[in-house]
Every structure is written in C-alpha cells, then in structure tokens.
Amino acid sequence: MTDIDSGRFATLLHAYGRATDTPGHLAALADGDTASRNAALGHLWSAVIHQGTPWTATPPAAAAVAALVGDPRLSGAADAALRADLLCFLAAVAESGRSSPELADLADPAGVDVDAALVAALDAGDEDEVFADEVLANALYARAVLGCRAVVPTVLDAATAALSDPAPAVRAAAAHTVSACRPALTAPTGTATLAGRLDALAAGAGPDERAALVLAMGELGLAPRTYLDDPHPGVRACAALAPALADDPVATTEILTALADPAATDDWFTQRPPQIHTRIRFALVAAAVARVDDPDRLLPAALAVAPIASPYTVGGDWGALLRALFAGRTDDPLSPAQRRYLGALVDNAGLWDSRNGSVGLAFRDAGLPHDRAACHALVTDSAPGPPPR
Q1: Average pLDDT in the 31-53 region?
Q2: Which pLDDT score is estimated for 103?
Q3: 227 or 106: whose pLDDT is higher?
Q4: Alpha-carbon gap, residue 265 to 275, rounded angstroms
Q5: Which of 62, 117, 153, 370 could form a disulfide with 93 if both were Cys (CB 3.0 to 4.6 A apart)?
Q6: Phi, psi of 376 (to 5 degrees)
Q7: What is the 3-state secondary structure (H, E, C) of 215-253?
Q8: What sign does the CA torsion over 281, 287, 289, 294 have?
Q9: Looking at residue 288, what is its pLDDT?
C-alpha cells in the first residue's frame, strides 16, 4: 500500500503555489473514481511537473507515484492505461533531474536560510515573494532538480519491475522510463543487462510495443542495428533514430525512405510509442536534417512533405526542411533544389496567410519573403505577379 505524508507537502511548492492539494490528488489515483483520477493526472502534468519544469513538490510526489505503479489497487487490466500514464510522468521527472549538474551552491546559498525565508513568505500568504527573490527562487529550483535526481533510483526500481507488467502499453512506458533513468544504471553491466531484457521483450512484442522498446535502446546509447531489418516500417524507423546510429548510412537511408511518404507514418501505430509526443515524422525530419547535408538527398523528403504542410506543422517538418535547404541564403539565384522545394511550398495555398507569425518567421529565417507572389517570382525568375491558384 502507498503511504502519503500530507504534512510534508505543506511547505512544498508546485507550479500554482503551495502543494497542499497534491496529497489529495495522489490518494485519488489509488482510491478515487474515474473523474478524480483524471483530475489527479491533470494535476501531475500541469502542476507537479509543469512543461518539464520540476518544483519542490515534484520529488516526493514522484516517490509516491513510483509506489503507486506497483500498488495492488492499480494492478488490474482496467488500470493498465493509468499505470502507463504514471510511468510516463516518472520518465518526465527523471529527465528533469538531468539538467544543470552544478546546482549545489544554488541550492544552499551562503548566508541565506532558504527554509526560513520560504516559511516566512508562505506564512505571510505572499507566495509571489518567493519568486521575486532571485536567490530564493534559484535555490528552490536547484533543490527541485536535485530532488528529482535523488529520486531516480526509486523511479528506476518501479519502472524495471513494470517491464514484467502483463499489459503491452505498460511495458512500453516502463521501457521509456527506464531509459530516462540511464544515469542511475551501473555501466556497463547495468546497461547490458537491461539491453538483453529489452531484446527479449521485443522478440514477442507487437509493433507498437516493439517500437517503444527499440527507442528505449536508442535512449540508452545502444545501437539497435538488427531492428533496421524489422518487418514493420515504424520499428525500422525507430531503430534508425538511435543516436548511436547517426553515422550509419543504412539508418539514414531508412529515415529518408520513411519520409518519402510522410503521411503514411501517421498510420504506423495504433498506440504511438510514449517517447514520441507529436507526429513521428517530426522526429524523422529532425534526424534527416541533422544527418544529411546534401540538399539533393534531402529534396525528395522535402517535396513529399510540402503538399501536407500546414501552418500548424511549421516547427515539426516543412519549416525545418526550409531552414536546412536555405541555410546561408544569399541574393544569388536559387539552386535547383531550393527552386523545386520553394515551388512546392508556393503550390500549397495554406501557407501564405500574412497574419501567421510562426510561418513568417520560418520564411524570414530562410532569407525569403513570406509572400506567395514574391516567392513564385523567385522560383520562376520573373517579376512578381499573381501566385498560382
């Protein structure tokens, strides 16, 4: 069973102030109804770790969540999705503890009683004062990060045990969480042992789970080269994304092959791997741009992305390709690759609303005007005129 020390949270903070409401949400995860559990999950993701930022309430909350993952009250098949969500939360906590290694001096600044200053501000009901004091604010952030770092072994134990969960989605989330805890692994034996276990799980897993396991291998610094021959295109692509395969020509070719039909990547998985928070083609484009410096080799992927480009994907796919293909742009005539890609974007009528600042910024960064007629003129070496209909 999971014990939650409510008193401990009285002087802890989350993103919205004093964390006195956090114990109730943690208790609801185990004993609440569906609405209460959903509210508790929302609290974890919005308050306890806000957009990746930890707070002083984050480490003890993570310790409680780690215990809940293995709590008998949440062991049933109906609670598998909840267990997976909790593991993903723990992965985010582990990741937040990896930032800024030099924090000890910030956490305990000379001549400042951080605990007394915090209690005084909270007792006065002036939580804003805590963050108005730069030294105190930095101390609390440092303590939050160091606390997350300290709780990683507990998170790792919970995630390692969850690799034996009967639910594929939970095992996938557990693999992600274990890899997020990689600084706590005893290298090289710990990593090697875990790699063998992930391989064994992948042998009997379906494509969704197998992709998550392969991504976890990559996050652990392994080179999952054998999965480049997997029968499933999504698993092959996930293997190719491994940083250890960044210089592998077969892996790079696999990424470019997948991007030849970028829309198809949306249908690869019934349940997207937990490591992929947005469309998987965004990760593939980022890897392609980082690994390929030949514009002609990038061009087929860019031309495939252009027809499905939208203002909402500027940061994920077509904008990254635009910046890559037009890096260092001058007033010289466009290269053949630049001409073809810009022409494909000109043909996409949805990209030319002058009120869209994000799209305009992408064109500006590429040294181009965010004006359809002007870009059409660049493509055709003509005077500006009406763009294509």
Answers
A1: 94
A2: 82
A3: 227
A4: 15
A5: 62
A6: -60, -40
A7: HHHHHCCCCCHHHHHCCCHHHHHHHHCCHHHCCCHHHHH
A8: negative
A9: 98
Q: What is the pTM of this model?
A: 0.89
pLDDT at 101: 67
- DSSP one-letter string for 159-190: HHHHTT-SSHHHHHHHHHHHHHTGGGS-TTHH
| Cis peptide, bond prior to residue 384, ω within 30 of zero | no
- CA 36 to chain centroid, in Å, comes to 26
CA proximity to 235, closest of 208, 253, 261? 208
Residues 6+ apart with CB under 8 A from 240: 228, 248, 250, 251, 252, 254, 255, 258, 287
> CA 275 to CA 282: how far, in whole Å?
13
DSSP 320-359: HHHHHHTTT--SSPPPHHHHHHHHHHHT-GGG--TT-HHH
Three-state SS at 373? helix
CA neighbor of 54 nearest in space, from 129, 150, 148: 148
The percentage of residues in the chain with a pLDDT greater than 70, rounded to a whole number, is 95
**Token pair listed for 323:** 């910046």
Say what angle helices 207-219 and 168-180 make with each other, to 10 degrees. Answer: 10
Give the tens place of pLDDT for each residue, 148-195.
Answer: 999 999 999 999 999 999 999 999 999 999 999 988 777 666 788 899
C-alpha distance from residue 329 to each of 35, 154, 309, 357 (Å): 53, 50, 22, 20
Those residues with Cβ within 8 angstroms of residue 92's Cβ, 6 or more apart along the chain or in another chain: 49, 52, 180
122 secondary structure, DSSP code = H
